[in-house]
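Give me C-alpha cells for this 338-residue protein.
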Amino acid sequence: MLSERRLQVLRAIVQDYVGTEEPVGSKALTERHNLGVSPATVRNDMAALEDEGYIAQPHTSAGRIPTDKGYRLFVDKLAGVKPMTAPERRAIQNFLEGAVDLDDVVARTVRLLAQLTRQVAVVQYPSLTRSTVRHVELLSLAPARVMLVLITDTGRVEQRMVDCPAPFGEASLADLRARLNSRVAGRRFTDVPKLVEDLPEAFEHEDRGTVSTVLSTLLETLVEENEERLMIGGTANLTRFGHDFPLTIRPVLEALEEQVVLLKLLGEAKDPGVTVRIGHENAHEGLNSTSVVSVGYGSGGEAVAKLGVVGPTRMDYPGTMGAVRAVARYVGQILAES
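Here you go.
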C-alpha cells in the first residue's frame, strides 16, 4: 500500500497532467501543490512511484505521467465525484424534459453527455428483457387485420401488423385486449410467454386461431427486439486528443464502430453503479489507450440499460464520473414519468 503522502503526490501528478497535458516535474509539483515537504522528498516519492509502476517517464529529462495503474489507484482512492453545479443540473433537466419519445430521450442524452464531458458518448436503449409491459393496444384495421402496439415501462413503443386467419369482431378484439392487459400489464417481458399460453382457451372455438396468431406476434416482438441497441455521439471530440493516442486514432474509431464491443464495454446493466475501465482493462486492443466510464440507468431502483463515455486515459475522472451519474439519474426520472 502507498503511504498517504505518496498517494497525495500521485493525485497531484494526475491532476496536473490532466490539466496541462505536459509531463509533471517535482519542481512544478511543489510550486503548485501544498504537499508540505521539500522538492527532494517529492523527487524521492516520484522515484518510488515510478519503481512501483504508478508513473512513467515518457522521455529522458522530462517529467512523469501517470500509467494505467496510476490512474486506477487515483480513481479507486477518489474521495468523491465532482458534483454538478445547480445551473448545470437545471440545464440537464430542461434539455432532457423536452424529449417527445424514447428515441428522442436517447438522442438528447447522447448529445448532452458528449457536450458535458467532451468525450464520445454511448447510450444503450432500455433492454426489453429487463422491461415490463405498460400496455398492449389492439386496433382493428380491417375485418381480418389488427395492429398490435406494445408499450413498455421505459416508453418504448413497438408496432406490428397481424393478418388474422378469419374476421375478428370489435367485441372479440375488446375482450382480447382486456384479458391480455389483465395478465401482462406491469409484468416482466420474460414472464409474458407463460402468462398467456392458455389464453386462447378462454375464447370461442372459431376465434382461437386469431387469438393464437395475435399472441404469436406479441411473443415474436419480444424475440426480435431482444437484440441490444445503442446510440453513439461526439466521435469528433476524439480529434482534440490526437496526442493522447500513441500511434493513431484509427484503432479507437474502428472499435467504436463495433456495437458488440461497445455493449461489452458498457458492461452488464444489472450493475447500476459507476464503473471505470482504464486503458488495458478494456479487453479490445483498439481501446487500450482509452478509458470508459459507465453507469446504469432506469426507472425505479433498477437499471434497465447503461450509458457512458469513452475518452483518452488522460481524462478528468471526478468530473466525468459526476456528469455520467447525473445524466443517468435524470434519464431515469424521465423514463419513470413518461
